[in-house]
Amino acid sequence: MANGVEKVKFFSNNPGVLDAFMWSNISIMISCPNGEIKLIDEEEKAKAWVKENVTDLVSNGLKITHVCIAHEPYLKANASSYIPDENDETTYVAAIIKALESVAKALEGQNPKNNVKASIPFSTEVLKPDIVKPSEGDFREEMKDNMTQILHTLNCSGSPFMVNLYPHFHIREKGYPLEFAYFKEANTNFTIKDGQNVYTNVFDATFDTFVSAIRRNGFPNMEIIAQVGWPTDGDIHASIPIAKTFYRGLLKKLSSNRGTPLYPSPLDVYIYSLVDENSRPQQPRGYSERHYGIYWYDGTPKYEYEFNPFRVNKSLERVQGISKMPQRWCVLKNNSKIDDQLHNKLFNFACQKADCSRLMYGGSCNQVLDRNGNLSYAFNMYFQTQSQNLIGGACKFENYGVVVDEDPSVATCKFPLQILSTIMVGGQAEMATTLVTNGGRINIMDFKLLPFSLSTTNEDDDSNDVVLQTVHYYPLLPLYNLHHI
User: Is 324 in a helix, a strand, or coil?
Assistant: First the structure.
């Protein structure tokens, strides 16, 4: 578009959502989720999947450029979506490799222009854990054979290696000072000296660790596409001010047209992600996993500037066409006296069904509320997640819950409201269609993006009510594709 932002990544490929991008000339990266790998782990099945999800859509005007096979497959939590026994990694990894080979072959056979590539996004779990300097980068010994086989397939098909970087997690895991995440946006004397290379930020250091691992295993010219983000809640150092400083430094780096010490080419980087995800698994990186969005669930921007390295002074626009439910909250009745056993029972019930990550250590509600306030927050999160269902007893809690019309938020701890329920046919597709009809679109960097990712149906309920912040089909925005200025 006008600012050069032309790419979006989806972690799933709902047909109704993708229809909105037909003939838009926006490059689309689709995915086959971990739980659907069985659909493509054999050649014939992969041919059918590619025809339905790639070839037919491309012929109808969708500009698909990449297919992601699974998501960080070496995480046991992801492997368990394919196999009942999460310890049986051999079965899962073999299926992933076969899926990649089968899809790559199907794409080659059905895509004469050879402009759709398949790859697998990996995180640092595939790297050796005791690496100190980027030049020492290598894959875990038990994964080397599989990673080499994957790299060979990518190389033969001309596909990129995809890396998911989590600087917030790497800072904590490695014990680096927070300022090492800031791209010199803050004064720090901490650097990593690696031969003639000096690393001043954790992004470059982690990226080049992957570069070294790939080269060490025989592939010196592999293209790399990165995904990166910073959380705004749920953990220490997960806040909007810190995330803002990180992104400001990242945008400046990308606008410089310089890569990293070992990968000097301009970087192809996607920002993770559009909105928070209240149902995202919290392991292995903790409660902050649910708070990587650059937008709140109601379409309000978290930041006052665009995510474009060349227009950092222009603000993100608020989503239009999103309405909240009535201003009512569920809280603990005043003067309630609850013993620890009942308190824990009610709290656990609510938080097993709703997202209470902001109450955890480092979260925006941690140490802000008292004991009863924590329970009120849990009550309200459950109440909103159930679409304020008064008839169904969503605020009952053994008669300790009460609905109030005065906002119970305290300081940094906000008690959210559910967005207005929408009857949805086929999940996200109807939500997207509804918002298009109403003109509700997100304008990010002059790029019109449908806010379908802001809601989905409640999988634990037979109703079709929208659930607060739950995201199953969400896009990943490219910060800037510096290869195509």
Answer: strand
